[in-house]
């Protein structure tokens, strides 16, 4: 028994936001049925592939799901999806507004056949507004939302983490669970509208509030970095994260660096650039390892900037118990386990990601399709 045992989710998403959301729901026991076109999601063929059509992306994000195919451009495919939705609890889709309405699969239509359904849409810019039909990936959205202007002088970068997409995934999980909870009280489902742009703005709540506050009070915007809160390069080209916000931590940092005269200047923001340059010069005099040796076991928020491989091999990650390895029929697979920990009904990885259409016959049989009917759907290209 898991937290979402008995909840049926139809995952008709094609990209990261929906796939990750469906993954989380599946990790906690939902019966997630992933619906793809007969050609399969593009992400199946992302580099690198464990097998043809089984990319490591697909294996990571579509675990704990059963997989079927359906072409909604055919009558048989549309009827199949509607039949699935008629007895589902959650529908998860990631198409641009209006696309599914062409095939009678929009919320208003589907609600008529299943008023208890929670219908979750994840889009780039929402259901309304002049941008609603514009294509965009994570990088485009966070740029428009001011989220990849990552330092105080406006420099931008491409993050390895798709912030808006993953943030929207978790907003979708929250929205779906809220709607399911509300359904327990009302007996009715509802539409859940998630978009990457709104997520990007919401992730900047503290920064936006600070900007408004500075405008209201006439203060100079502080930004996210300061001489005591920054990343510094060491002699060997490595980096240290310095987060010495508390005065006691700043004091100890100055002592380690041999800069005791700076202890009382922690909040000397008028000369912040000068102080930052001073610290940068000192950090350049030793390697990362030498600084870490000086710090030893002391605790004052100075830590190494690790590569991803270093992080995965670290003692911290081993202690986190976030990594798992399973022997599957297609070989040994490695997983990142659910980050949400429940004491009584924890999430787990029970099923590898499906081969394309692997469970089509199984799911259709459960829906009441006969073997001749399934063969006819195959012959007409509906599945």
From TrEMBL:
Under the heading Pfam families, the entry gives:
CoA_transf_3 (PF02515)
Question: What are the UniProt keywords, alphabetically?
Answer: Transferase
- UniProt cross-references to SUPFAM superfamilies, sorted A to Z: CoA-transferase family III (CaiB/BaiF)
**Top-level taxon of the source organism:** Bacteria
Does this entry carry the keyword rRNA processing? no
MF terms (GO), sorted A to Z: transferase activity
Instruction: Provide the protein name.
Output: CoA transferase
